[in-house]
Design brief:
alpha/beta; Rossmann fold; six-stranded parallel beta sheet; four-stranded parallel beta sheet; 45% helix; 17% strand
């Protein structure tokens, strides 16, 4: 027996491996150091590492940011100097100059990993020397096998073992958010009757939230695989939902948190439906420009699947291809279920082959990293920097219009350009 409906093709999933074009995990320091003003991120790396973070942050050379680089020189790299002694000396000098630091992150890089500098042992040694003064943690921001958002995943993972145990019922939001956005989300969860809402990372690095069997974990970012698994191993219950980008994803995300605490659907609708209506009105003028336009997302930030869902379902864009550096099905199945049948999804990157497909398809807009944007713009293809989407406050129904505008702006800029 047949239903009379043509069977729709499933998602087309492909895996590629080759040359990549991404920033390394050191870039995540830029938003993490803003989140925790009592923390300091000390990169153990080269001058190139220092220039990368400095450029990404846009901080003047004479400013006093909450990050820095312990530069490995030629003698360190050649094994002619004791890098551990130099690191200890630099850390002590830093803490004398910056007494407000309460947590020090030692951040590994490609150079420190190449010379096998054990920053875990260095952190252990410094914690013994500086007990009661500062907490020293370490993680890898190396770009050898990671993309730039995984730096945050590794930083949060380093904090999980220090979180106190608790069986108190609470909702734990995981992933860095702008303070104003987080305040708004916490307020909304309060109106839904969830009294205890905590965050990782916290606004003060020494005030880590508790974790235990009563904790429901709601990820605000889709790139926190290692952190999510560590929180589950500590007893947390991981909630699955689309991520809070656009009105549809934001409503579903908040509804998942509410359902975990038994909140009545009627109350969820009372609190969230007015936000959805306002968000849809904010998206509408940008949808007029975006609807029908063809979109190609290259793998870079790991936000690609969530953005593709938002831009296709709420802005009417046509998906040519959706690339993602890594595909964690546990964290992204809810997003995959909302993509249209037949969507081509690629995991990993072979940059030359992907650029060949971009040139063959000639999409209206390409979401990609900074290294690829200018060459594509020179070929007459409009682009959107994926890293800007990590820095921008785009979570929640209230930001849905701003999120749509970021993509519409790229098309308006392209239309305004004239070429001789």
């Amino acid at each position: 027996m047949t239903t009379g409906l043509a069977e729709q093709p499933p998602l087309q999933l492909f895996k590629e491996s080759g040359q990549r074009e991404v920033f390394c995990g050191l870039t995540s320091i830029v938003w993490l150091h803003r989140r925790m003003p009592d923390a300091f991120f000390l990169v153990v790396g080269s001058r190139t590492c220092a220039h990368l973070v400095q450029s990404a942050a846009g901080v003047m050379i004479f400013a006093e940011p909450r990050f820095g680089t312990a530069i490995l020189g030629e003698r360190d790299l050649a094994g002619l100097a004791d890098a551990n002694d130099e690191l200890d000396r630099l850390v002590k000098d830093l803490l004398e100059r910056r007494p407000e630091i309460r947590t020090l992150f030692l951040v590994g890089s490609c150079p420190s990993e190449v010379i096998k500098l054990d920053l875990a042992k260095a952190a252990e040694r410094l914690n013994t020397q500086l007990a009661g003064r500062v907490m020293v943690l370490n993680y890898s921001g190396s770009g050898i096998e990671t993309t730039f958002t995984q730096g945050e995943d590794q930083a949060l993972l380093a904090m999980v073992p220090l979180m106190p145990s608790s069986e108190v019922d609470q909702l734990l939001i995981v992933g860095t958010l702008a303070d104003a956005v987080e305040d708004r989300l916490v307020q909304l969860f309060g109106r839904l009757g969830i009294p205890v809402v905590t965050s990782l990372p916290p606004r003060r690095s020494t005030e880590l939230p508790p974790i235990g069997p009563g904790t429901r974990v709601l990820l605000a970012q889709p790139f926190l695989s290692a952190t999510a698994r560590a929180l589950v191993s500590r007893g947390g219950q991981l909630l699955t939902a689309p991520y809070p980008f656009g009105v549809e994803g934001s409503r579903a995300w908040m509804a998942a948190g509410a359902a975990a605490f038994g909140v009545a659907p009627a109350l969820v609708a009372e609190v969230l439906d007015p936000l959805v209506e306002r968000g849809q009105r904010a998206i509408a003028p940008h949808r007029e420009l975006l609807a029908g336009k063809r979109l190609f997302l290259l793998p870079d930030s790991q936000l690609e699947l969530s953005l593709a869902r938002f831009l296709q379902r709420e802005c009417g864009m046509e998906l040519v291809e959706v690339g993602t550096p890594y595909l964690d099905r546990q964290l992204l199945d809810a997003e995959l279920a909302l993509l249209p049948p037949g969507t081509r999804i690629t995991e990993g990157q072979d940059v030359e082959r992907q650029l060949e497909r971009v040139r063959a398809e000639r999409p209206d807009l390409v979401v990609c990293g900074l290294g690829l944007a200018n060459p594509l713009e020179a070929e007459g293809i409009a682009t959107k920097w994926s890293i800007e989407l990590v820095f921008s406050p785009i979570h929640g129904c209230d930001q849905a219009g701003d999120l749509a505008e970021l993509f519409a702006r790229s098309l308006r800029r392209r239309a305004a350009l004239s070429f001789s």
